[in-house]
Amino acid sequence: MSSEMTVDFPGGKRVTAHYDGFDIVTDQGVDSGGGGTAPEPYDYFLASLATCAGYYVLKFCEGRHISTDGITLHQRWERNEDKRLVRVAIEIRVPPEFPEKYHKALVRAANTCSVKRTIQDPPEITTEMVVT
Q1: Most CB contacts within 10 A, which of 32, 100, 106, 130?
Q2: Quick one: which of 28, 69, 73 has its CA closest to 47?
Q3: What is the pLDDT of residue 2?
């Protein structure tokens, strides 16, 4: 099974991906010569980790009829001196009434995130030139 998206350049430092009827707009920050009008591509990468884990938290709670009111995920990351990402930490914060018997299971559910699993077992990524 394969999918595809198209990327174009609407001006300035903006780069937009078009996928499945959605426009995923990016821009560089002002300090990088962009207008700061949209998240940078790397921001979407980081957000995909947190929101993917969040989806599995939501799915876990829905499956057990547990309200997600008061549940949040907080993500922090660290980079080394070369600005390479070296650590990502996701913290699931639950209210006191969240059933304690599900604490570890909720973490396990969040860890099934497909974005995380893809990073842990990366796919082959190729780039090629095509003249059209």
Answers
A1: 106
A2: 73
A3: 78
Q: CA nearest 55: which of 123, 98, 115?
A: 115
Report the 10 Å Cβ neighbour count for 86.
Answer: 10
Please name the amino acid found at residue 11: G
| Residue 120 φ/ψ, nearest 5 degrees | -70, -25
If DSSP codes are grouped into helix, strand and coil, which group holds residue 6?
Answer: strand
Distance, CA of 24 to CA of 30 (rounded, Å): 19
- Tracing tokens 């394969």 back to the chain, one arrives at 2
C-alpha distances in angstroms, 13 versus 22, 37, 71? Answer: 20, 10, 36
What pLDDT digit, counting tens, does each position of 57-89 carry?
A: 999 999 999 999 999 999 999 999 999 999 999
Residue written as tokens 């003249």?
A: 131
Could you give the CA distance from residue 113 to residue 55 in angstroms, rounded to a whole number? Answer: 8
| 85, 77 Cβ separation under 8 angstroms | yes
